[in-house]
Amino acid sequence: MVLVLADSPNGQLKKGSFEAVTYGKKVADAMGTQCAALVLGNAGDAGQLGQYGAAKVIHINNDQLNNFDSQVYTSVVADVAKQVGAQVVIVSHSSAGKSLIGRLAVRLDAGSVAGVNQLPTVDGGFKVKKNVFSGKAIAEFEISSPVKVLSLMGNSIPVESTGSAVAAESMDVNIPASKVTVKERKTIDGTVPLPEAELVVSAGRGMKGPENWGIIEELATELGATTACSRPVADTGWRPHHEHVGQTGVAIRPNLYIAAGISGAIQHLAGVNSSKVIVVINKDPEAPFFKAADYGIVGDLFDVVPRITESLKKYKAAN
Amino acid sequence: MKILVCVSKTPETTAKISFSGTDFDTAGVQFIMNPYDEWYALVRALELKEAHGGTVTIINVGPASNDPVIRKGLAIGADDAVRINAEPQSALTAAKYIAEYAKTGGFDLILTGKETIDYNGSEVGGMVAELLDLPYISYANHLDVNGTAATVSRDIEGGTEVVEVSTPIVVSAAKGMAEQRIPNMRGIMMAKRKPLNVVEPGAASDHAKVVSYEMPQGKTTVKMIDPENMDELVRLLHEEAKVI
Asked: B166 in contact with A at a CB cutoff of 8 Å?
C-alpha cells in the first residue's frame, strides 16, 4: 500500500494534497499496489480524494487533530501506516510535511527523501530524484529500507482527476495529547501563498523604492499572480520578508515567473530556476538573468510593466 | 538555560556546483556555516543566553576540516563546541549522532536552521526531536523563552502561527528569528581558547543514499521581445508557453 497524507490546513483540502494523491496513485501503479489517502482533522469532503486516485480514504475527523503538532501527527500517521501495511508514505513538502518527514522516517525506521519532484523508479531498487544545492543540481537517492517516506515538492506533477469519489472511512488510532498549544494563526486572505502559486510577479532593486510597487501589484492582480521580491528589497524593508524568493528565501517553482528589475544573482536564480517559464525585464542587456530566461525584454520596467498589464487587459477582453 | 545549536557546513551561496563522477567536486569551493544555522539559530541562542543566562554549545557532524566553520561559531559567541568525528552519510545518521550526544547534555533548547542550502532536506531537526521524543516547532521566525515556557511564531503557508510549548523542545530557525552577527577581533581571539571537543561516533544505520548527480538542463536560448510590443509577449505566453 502507498499511504498519502493529504494536508487540510484551515479545514480544507488543497491543491498540494491533490498533487500528492495523484503522485501516490502513480507510485502505487508502478509498484503494483493501491493508494490510500489519509486525512486528519476537519477537512470537508475527504472522499473527493478518490477522484485523484485514492482507492481508499481514511478520515480521522477528531478535534484533537485540527491543529498541527508534529509529535501527534507522527504518532497517528505511523499507526495508520502500520495498520494498512504501507510500503511508501508520502506527505506534501509543505510546512506540515516538512515538519513530519524526519520524525516519520525515525518512527517507521524508514529511509526518507525530502522534496522529491519526479516519480521514483522501482525496478532494481527504489530510486527517486530531487533538486539539491538549491536547484543548482539534481541528486538521485536510493532507499533501501522496506518502508520509504517521501515529501513531494509543490507544482511537481499536474493534478489528474480521472477517478471517482469514494466513501471516507474512519480508523481506530491512539491520539496522544498534544504538548503544543496554538495561540494564534494569521494568514493573509485573498492571495495564494508563494510556494503554491502558479503565477508569480517579482521585482528587485530596479524599482528604485517601495512607493513604485503599484505597477507590480497591478500586473499581479491582472494575472491573478502572487507578488515576490529579491533579497535586497526584503532586507531594506521595501517589501515584507515572506515575499523574498531565492536561495535564502522561499524556493518556488511556479508555471510563470516574471522578474522586473532583478539582475539575476546566482543566489536568486537558485530559488527560482525551477520555474517552468521565466520572463525577465531589465534595462541592462548584460543582466545575467537573461541567460536563465525564456523570454527577455530589454527596456525600462516603468514603461514595460504597465504595457504588459494593458496587453493582458486587451487579451482578456478579446478572449 | 542550556542551548544546543546544530550547525552544518555547506558550500558558499555563490559556489559553482559540479561533480566528478558521483562525487561533489570541492575544488575551488569555499565552505561556510549553513546560513540558517548561523544567522538565525546561533544568533538567537546567543540573544537568549544574554537575556536569561546559560550556555550555548555548538554541535557539528563532520571531519576535522570542519573545524574552521565551528571556530567561527565560537567567535560569534558560543561557549563551547562538539564535533562528532564522522562524515555524515545522510540526514538520519547526522540526527542519530546529534541525538546520542544531546541525551547526555540536559539541553533545554535544541536549535537548527530550517534547512541546509546543500541538500535542502529540513529533516534533521524533526529526526532529532523524534529520537529524543520532544516537541518540534519548525520554520520559527520568532522564539522567546521565559522559564520553561516557550512562545514560538512559525511560518505556515501564507502566514504565521503562534504556539506555546514547554521546554525541552527542538526548534528550526527561519528568516526573521535574529539578525546576522559578524565576529569581532576579540571574539576571534577568544574562540581559539574555547573548547572544541571531538567525539567518536557510535554505530548508526542508514537507509537512503545518493547514487548519482546530474545538472539541470539549462534554458535553450532566450527569446527577446520588442519592449514596445507587449501584445506579442502575452500572445507567446498564451500560445507558445501555454502558461496563461
From this structure: yes
Q: Chain A residues with CB inside 8 Å of B212's CB?
A: 139-140
Residue A199 lies in a domain: yes
Q: Domain range spanning residue A279?
A: 194-318
Chain A neighbors of B160, CB-CB under 8 A: 185-186
Q: pLDDT (tens digit, 9 = 90+) per residue, A169-198?
A: 999 999 999 999 999 998 876 678 888 899
Tell me, what CATH number does A201's domain have?
Answer: 3.40.50.1220
Q: What is the dihedral of CA B112, B114, B118, B119, to 10 degrees?
A: 100
Q: What whole-number distance in Å separates Cα of residue A218 and Cα of residue A256?
A: 16
State whether residue A45 sits within 8 Å of chain B by CB.
Answer: no
On whether ipTM exceeds 0.95, the answer is no
Which residues of chain B have a CB within 8 Å of the CB of A315? 231, 234-235, 238
Residue B234 near chain A (CB below 8 Å): yes
In this complex, is the C-beta atom of A291 within 8 Å of any C-beta atom belonging to chain B?
Answer: yes
For range B66-86, the mean pLDDT:
98
Look up the pTM and report it: 0.92
pLDDT (average), residues A238-260: 91
The fold of the B2-207 domain, in CATH, is: Rossmann fold (3.40.50)
**Prior bond to B168 cis, omega within 30?**
yes
Chain B residues close to A280, C-beta within 8 Å: 222
Predicted confidence band at A30 (pLDDT cuts at 50, 70, 90)? very high
Helical residues (DSSP H) of A175-298, grouped into ranges: 214-223, 231-235, 266-272
How many structural domains are present in chain A?
A: 2
pLDDT (tens digit, 9 = 90+) per residue, B107-125?
Answer: 999 999 999 999 999 999 9
- Pair A121, A213 in one domain: no
Q: How far is A146 from chain B (nearest CA, A)?
A: 9
Mutation site, B207, B219, B220, interface A, largest A CB count within 10 A: B207
Whether residue B89 is predicted with pLDDT greater than 90 in this model: the reply is no
3-state DSSP: chain A helix, strand, coil percent, rounded to 5? Answer: 35, 25, 35
Mean pLDDT across B22-50: 94
Write down the pLDDT at residue B159: 85
Gap between the Cα atoms of A270 and B228, Å rounded: 30
Q: Does A127 have pLDDT greater than 90?
A: yes
Answer whether B217 touches A (CB < 8 Å).
Answer: no
Average pLDDT, chain B: 94
Distance CA(B81)–CA(A55), nearest Å, equals 51
Residue B239 touches chain A, beta carbons under 8 Å: no
Q: How far apart are CA A116 and CA A141, in angstroms?
A: 10
Are A143 and A10 contained in the same domain?
yes
Q: What grid cell was written down for A146? A: 522496506
Query: What are the cell numbers at A256?
Result: 510563470
Last residue of a domain, one of A124, A152, A180: A152
By CA distance, what is A178's nearest residue in B? B135
